[in-house]
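Board work, copied verbatim: Transcriptional regulator, TetR family
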Amino acid sequence: MTRPSAPDSASRIANAVADSVQYQGRKASRQGSEQRRQAILDAAMRIIVREGVRAVRHRAVAAEAEVPLSATTYYFKDIDDLITDTFAQFVERSAAYMAHFWESTQGLLLEEVGKLDGTAESRRNLADEIARLAVEYVRHQLLTRRDHLMAEHAFHQEALLNPRLHELVRSHRLILLQGTTHFFQVLGSQQPRQDAEVLAGIIERMEYQGLLDGVENLNVEEMLAILRRYMYLVLGL
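↓ predict structure ↓
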């Protein structure tokens, strides 16, 4: 295993997911047409975040996007195509965001791992720092990307009812899971995939709780204790 390459691999995977996204609706042929198509998809997502997937209708989306009703039916023959492409765009943008995230955390991660000297104290310090960074990540998501988290939950719920979204859900999950797996490989985990599944689940639960209770009501000490306990187990403490 070559540890320094792991964050780069995570970024490449996220970029590959972004490049693999396939849209169902009519493709735009001109720049102005593409801008209108994007406006329709953005409007549909705003409605999903604000009112839920069931509120997405051609007329409602046209009004939200401030385009003629005929524009929505031109690009998307039915509501299923519109919803599918709205979530396809969500996955594409999520992948681009996570690619940047893994690139930006590469130096910090390698710096922290470089402090390990074989002692329990160095592993404990690393676990504490990772727990702190994870809590900050959750807080940042809730403070600056709340709409993204709301869309994510709507996406997962809709996929339970719409088989056309299954592959998109798998791609979206892959973005976080593969990146987190590489993170644990850098740490030297013996079971990086399993460790990634657990950490991703913990973070997703904390984000959901933050959406329910509000970021101002987060129990930061409890979050730190949970994450610290988990990282102690991973690092053999």
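DSSP finds ten helices and no strands in the chain.
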